[in-house]
Amino acid sequence: MNKVEGILGLAFKAKKLLVGETEVLFGFKRGKIEGVILAVNISEKQKKKIELLAKEQGTLVVNWGTKEEIGRILNRRPTGILGFQDRGFWQKFLKEIGNDQGVN
């Protein structure tokens, strides 16, 4: 297992990772989202909806992986939207994928 998969798995087990559009939208409403991962193969409608909310709240969005890869990593059905609720896990994820933008 590579480090990115490990970070996602740990965040999920620690209940610091929201999975799917419904959970992430609810997380935005509560103001609990530190960062968002969007799979590269989600629909444009979903992408625009999440990106708009993220922009309003100053939350960084990263395109990474496919729905199938993310589902496999989390041992779930394919899913294209993940929301981190923990800044530490989010920063570790960004570091591992080589994103130097940091956390907003």
TrEMBL record:
InterPro entries (alphabetical): Ribosomal_eL30-like_sf, Ribosomal_eL8/eL30/eS12/Gad45
Domain Ribosomal protein eL8/eL30/eS12/Gadd45: 3-88
Signal peptide residues on this chain, from the entry's feature table: none
Protein name: Ribosomal protein eL8/eL30/eS12/Gadd45 domain-containing protein
Lineage of producing organism: Bacteria, Bacillati, Bacillota, Clostridia, Thermoanaerobacterales
